[in-house]
Amino acid sequence: MSLFELESAFYKTLHIFPDLKHSQSEERYIAFGITNEGRHIFVAFTLRKVGKKTYIRPISSRYMHQKEVDYYEEITRIKNG
């Protein structure tokens, strides 16, 4: 997946959760979302501060497995009523 495709998911409906299992030395997050191309992706990331700005630093990203897509769709249905 390209960096452009990864970034596009952050401009759409993205479900973000703390990644408590991997947050020993820094706060990490996991997210489920859809890219501009319509692909479902899973992203692990952290936030980095540089001066007064905060940046998203991806740690890992991949396309979702079908079970994860189903979970994403269910969360989206619940949140949208």
What descriptive keywords fit this protein?
four-stranded antiparallel β-sheet; alpha+beta; globular; 27% helix; 2 helices
Description:
- The protein is of the alpha+beta class and 81 residues long.
- The protein has one domain (3-80).
- The protein has 2 helices and 4 strands.
- It has helices at 3-9, 66-80; strands spanning 14-18, 28-34, 40-50, 53-63.
- A 4-stranded antiparallel β-sheet has the order 1-2-3-4.
- The longest helix is centred in the last third of the chain and has 15 residues, at 66-80.
- The model has no long low-confidence stretch (mean pLDDT 90).
Radius of gyration: 13 Å
For the largest sheet, list the strands in their spatial order: 1-2-3-4
| Principal-axes shape call | globular
Unreliable sequence segments:
none
- Find the structural class using helix and strand composition: alpha+beta
Instruction: Characterize the biggest β-sheet.
Output: 4 strands, antiparallel
Element-level helix/strand string: HEEEEH
> Hey, roughly how much beta strand do the residues contain?
35-45%
Mean pLDDT: 90
Distance between the termini: 31 Å
Beta-strand segment tally: 4
Count, helices = 2
List the helices and strands and how they pair.
Layout: H1 3-9, E1 14-18, E2 28-34, E3 40-50, E4 53-63, H2 66-80
Antiparallel strand pairs: 1-2, 2-3, 3-4
